[in-house]
Design goal:
alpha+beta; 3-methyladenine DNA Glycosylase, Chain A; 8-stranded antiparallel sheet; 16% helix
């Protein structure tokens, strides 16, 4: 188990968003281990980024983003779904990376039960992966460098040429410069 340490997350958010591609996201629930390779992320770059939850300052909802890097920021959206983010950069600088999609590797049968479906689309969206891995508000603020309950491990090296950068999704409220920023990263098919 090669758990990513705090120094991994304590770097530029755009760098971390790319570097998380190919890493293994692991969720341990009792004796069950659920895991998948991260294949899509989005960067949220602090107060200057109008798409970032911390754009207008600290609130009860986004307080975790102001913590030390390497903490999970889990929030509930649209009254329906949980979303998982990893806090990045220095403490007090509210930046995070949204984990948008994984390719399931371990515990696939359990993920199928949680998602009530079979097939390859178990965790190909941020809400789907939280449902598949049993990630909810109880993990908000969780130290993902601890190596228990929820963590990220080194897994596969992704060549920079295999990374696709595109605009983030679902941020119509943000300024045009932030809506159009190429801060969504994914592994090209075959990457």
């Amino acid at each position: 188990m090669d758990v990513l340490d705090r120094k991994f997350y304590e770097r530029d958010t755009l760098y971390v968003a790319r570097a998380l591609l190919g890493k293994k996201l692991v969720r341990k629930i009792g004796r069950v281990t659920l895991a998948g390779m991260i294949v899509e992320t989005e960067a949220y770059c602090g107060r200057e980024d109008s798409a970032c939850h911390a754009h207008r300052g600290q609130t009860a909802r986004n307080a975790v983003m102001f913590k030390a890097p390497g903490h999970a920021y889990v929030y509930f959206t649209y009254g329906l779904h949980y979303m998982l983010n990893m806090v990045t950069e220095k403490e007090g600088n509210p930046c995070a990376v949204l984990i948008r999609a994984i390719v399931p590797l371990d515990g696939i049968k359990e993920m199928e039960k949680r998602r009530k479906l079979k097939g390859t689309r178990l965790a190909d969206g941020p809400a789907k992966l939280c449902q598949a891995l049993g990630i909810d508000k109880s993990l908000n603020g969780w130290d993902v460098t601890s190596g228990s309950k929820l963590w990220v491990e080194d897994f596969k090296k992704i060549n920079a040429k295999s990374i696709l950068a595109s605009p983030r999704i679902g941020i119509n409220y943000a300024k045009a410069e932030h809506r159009n920023a190429l801060w969504r990263f994914s592994i090209k098919t075959g990457g």
